[in-house]
Amino acid sequence: MFVLLSNDDGIQAPGLTALIKEFARRHEVAVVAPDRERSASSHSITVHKPLRAQQMDTKLGATCAYAVNGTPGDCVKLALTTLLPKKPDMVISGINRGSNLGTDVFYSGTVAAAFEALLHGIPAIAVSLATYGEETDYGLSAAVALAVAERLAAKPVLSRTLININVPDLRKADIKGVRITRLGIRQYRNIFEARRDPRGQTYYWLAGEPVVGTNSVDTDIAAVEQGFVSITPVAVDLTDYEGLQQLQSWENEIDT
Ligand code: MN
Question: What is the reported pTM?
């Protein structure tokens, strides 16, 4: 395969390095990633300032690598339309430092990079490791991402759906297996910390930690809490088809 790798933690992030090494052993790899951390940038794109793509060292095994002064969405869009010599067979985003579970997917730059690939008709995988530790081993997550990518390539059943992988921060021997899951609802407590600036004015800093144990067992959140690798198919089509049925009569009931 020819794969494009991206992320939202920036081109120097160890999670991306692990992904490059793992995929380059067996596949042709291109890297286009933000030049700095752009976590929680969601699917934003840059339209009011120029984008620059700086060619980077490819010593890890990639055939080309670019650092872009934009968001993950910018990176994938620019790669697919402009930078890459040919269309990739798949786009893999990550490995994110920290999980992207449940409603996190709305804020995640990691998932957005995969979404951008889907909008171009290219199969996509987002992969995240559930830890914020500095001394983190991404090797296991990279191996899982490769296994999932090769399986998806062999049997491309999903055309409008990305695969969102979350790996618990455990040693290989302690991982209980794989669960196919749905997105849960991620709730946070103590979301904003209120502080005082030197002039006595209050400011707010988004922080907060997730509330544990409120999601049913079939969710991605519960799977990772219980020590399973979670694999969630996430559709690009946000239409609520039940709602479509329920609102049908409005066509005749709302005056224009
Ligand atoms: Mn991130």
Answer: 0.95
